[in-house]
Target: Methyltransferase
Amino acid sequence: MRGRSDGGKKKPVIVLVCVASVVLVFVYLFFGSSNHKASAIEYGRKLGLSGDDDDDSIKKDDTSSNSFYVEDLGNGFTPRSFPVCDDRHSELIPCLDRNLIYQMRLKLDLSLMEHYERHCPPPERRFNCLIPPPPGYKIPIKWPKSRDEVWKVNIPHTHLAHEKSDQNWMVVKGEKINFPGGGTHFHYGADKYIASMANMLNFPNNVLNNGGRLRTFLDVGCGVASFGGYLLASEIMTMSLAPNDVHQNQIQFALERGIPAYLGVLGTKRLPYPSRSFELAHCSRCRIDWLQRDGILLLELDRVLRPGGYFAYSSPEAYAQDEEDLRIWREMSALVGRMCWTIAAKRNQTVIWQKPLTNDCYLERAPGTQPPLCNSDSDPDAVYGVNMEACITQYSDHDHKTKGSGLAPWPARLTSPPPRLADFGYSTDMFEKDTETWRQRVDTYWDLLSPKIQSDTVRNIMDMKANMGSFAAALKEKDVWVMNVVPEDGPNTLKLIYDRGLMGAVHSWCEAFSTYPRTYDLLHAWDIISDIKKRGCSAEDLLLEMDRILRPSGFILIRDKQSVVDLVKKYLKALHWEAVETKTASESDQDSDNVILIVQKKLWLTSESLRDLE
Model:
């Protein structure tokens, strides 16, 4: 503007326009839009709730956003209520949020599936609000009926029913979504497909568990997890794995059905499972390019397969005769051959490869053969946020000498001391005492819960600090499954859990878990709140995350210090939780200074949802 006579007049006008624009943007963000209801990032504005008959103060304070967020309790400030996230965020997964990737302008390689991997929000971008259920939400159908049907209002997404209508993934029938048991490769039912695989391997009575020798499976690109759901009848536990991709909500459907499942992808990071965890990995037209990056994705499967483990592959490359499929088959066969895999069976459209039992084949390969063996200092069990490696993981001396994992068949495997106990310096006596201690503790938990639950009330359970998996082991006779979570900053005992025939994942509770909201009926929090506070992470954030994961009417078993229990009690009203029972741990217990607090999450709906229903 230099040298122009009207510059002095225009400058104030420009400044005024800018200020006005900022004010308008602030007003929009703060008050939101009537079309979008309440903004999800509002921190002080509270939507009306239903279902809290004893909480009249919330309704009274609805008009005063400053007066209801915190209250002085004499020893600090504690929330009286949290804001409710916008209804658009009823399925928010904080560390798998595509909007966050766009907002933070993360530069990710889409060809490597990095956009489907975990990218957690920094503290200033976290949603400090309660995730609302969808309009009309109902308490989920109980297991085992839930394997075959769920309420449509709980997961109001029917596009897969239309997209996969010729494959019998799912069918919409009135108020419910039914699951006939079909899949991309097994239109006529997972049960027949599973029996066919057992027959291919010559297992007795066409049962795929082979007398209990096969127990833990990994299903990659699982769809709605019918394969894993039907394997449960054979006492096989399957980790059904899929990303939050174009088939959105497939893992949400799986968990709503009561089938073990986890949101994850074969991208650039290792899967959150230790080495030698699964007896069989399965891919049924999972649309994965196994040849990319020197076979790094197949090598990741190799890492998590046990000695002698199987990879069942049902895909056109295994049977089609066109030029491209034949090329892929030749290259894939050459790759697995160099990995020392052999064909255990091949029939029609399915091939089953088997991993070697010992290191002999690896050591006999010609010098310079690709892929190489991993360096001796590479830890195959380090997984949380660790990049995959394009190399072959050799077996330990124990596995090499025993020609396998040395595991007992299921169900004896559950209570037999795992061979890898020695990796932690744990004795058989320590293992047996831990198993018995948690058996007694679980008996106490169920006595305390008994006035509130029936035999089918609880199905999906998460143990937030699983240690050796003895909490889950104590639940064997109940019709439940347990996601055993091992914190990433402690001993990586997850391999002991898999060796017991159970399953789980490594995770940091300073971040959100990779699951949809409302997917677990019961959370077990043993010392986990104390642990994250020691790490300098937010206990409030963890409580909000627990609320996100927990189903309405679900339970949380908190076993922690008295000070932690007192802290949680201050948050009960804000979280719409109800204290069911408080009990001091038995004096004979190893952690007799701990207190047990059992809380139940109330079922509530936003006033907006109620108006939608009306």
